[in-house]
Write a structure and sequence with these properties.
Blueprint: H1 13-23, H2 31-44, H3 48-58, H4 63-72, H5 104-115, H6 123-140, E1 158-159, E2 166-167, H7 168-179, H8 184-191, H9 196-203, H10 207-215, H11 218-221, H12 231-260
Helix pairs in contact: 2-4, 2-6, 2-7, 2-12, 4-6, 5-6, 6-12, 8-12
């Protein structure tokens, strides 16, 4: 977030945009490409019937648009109430205490539970819950969306590197994905390394467990020194990100299948 202070009018607009992008305390999770990948991976594991039901309720939105809807609407003040729904911050070593607070965990759990009654719900209400689930499953698998309040999920940590730059959160959201060109094909290659038992365990629907699994990666996320990231860090964590996207896709598919009667 920008510090308040005097700013000359002569600063180019593009520079202001870059400044805001580097210091924003509300970086998106995975960015557009990452969320699209989670949705695309999920649809790889849905039967035709479940795919058609989901598409029917999404209406004119593609699965990629559905996955990014919550981020796309951040500029719409009507949806300001959703701003805290993308993440859950806890101090290091702290355990989650269930509460009525509207955060990524409570909103996702509620949406999954309510969607089980989709046959008795209005179409627009089913669509809304699908949009929440598509996006928040992705968010939950970006470790910094289950991060530490002290640095706002990595938003206040500035990184130097020949390969990426800006704040730690944005580097994990988008920059490593783009620098390493993580694609659907490379994610499916990562999936192919999982055995049957691993896939079965990943697919079990347990949002709290998913949160702790993402959070367990934070030591890896912060495994750089003096705010510098070398190529080894980028290369090794690209593999972590790719696996997280696969897990997010499998779990999104599992939710949709369990809700609409399919199997994966």
């Amino acid at each position: 977030m920008l510090k308040r202070g005097y700013m000359k009018k002569s600063i180019p607009v593009l520079l202001l945009v870059l400044i805001f992008s580097c210091f924003s305390a509300e970086s998106y999770a995975w960015g557009k490409r990452g969320h699209e990948l989670v949705a695309q991976i999920a649809f790889k594991f849905l039967d035709d019937s479940t795919q058609q039901i989901v598409k029917k309720y999404l209406g004119n939105l593609s699965i990629e648009e559905a996955a990014n809807w919550m981020d796309d609407e951040r500029g719409n003040s009507y949806y300001n109430y959703m701003r805290t729904w993308h993440y859950l911050d806890m101090d290091k070593g702290e355990n989650y205490t269930p509460s009525s607070e509207r955060n990524i965990l409570t909103v996702l759990h509620t949406a999954i539970t309510e969607l089980k009654q989709y046959k008795t719900m209005k179409k627009k209400d089913v669509k809304y819950r699908l949009l929440l689930i598509f996006h928040l499953v992705g968010d939950l698998h970006q470790p910094l969306h289950t991060g530490y309040a002290i640095d706002k999920g990595g938003n206040t940590i500035q990184i130097n590197s020949p390969y990426v730059g800006g704040n730690l959160h944005s580097i994990w959201d988008t920059q490593i994905l783009e620098y390493k060109n993580i694609t659907l094909d490379s994610c499916m290659q990562a999936y192919s390394t999982l055995d049957t038992a691993q896939v079965a365990d990943i697919k079990k629907i347990n949002e709290l467990k998913w949160m702790y699994q993402s959070r367990s990666l934070l030591d890896t996320v912060y495994s750089f020194e003096n705010n510098f990231m070398d190529k080894n860090y980028i290369d090794s964590n690209a593999l972590v990100i790719r696996r997280q996207l696969v897990m997010g896709g499998l779990r999104l598919a599992s939710i949709l299948s369990a809700t609409f009667g399919g199997s994966i």
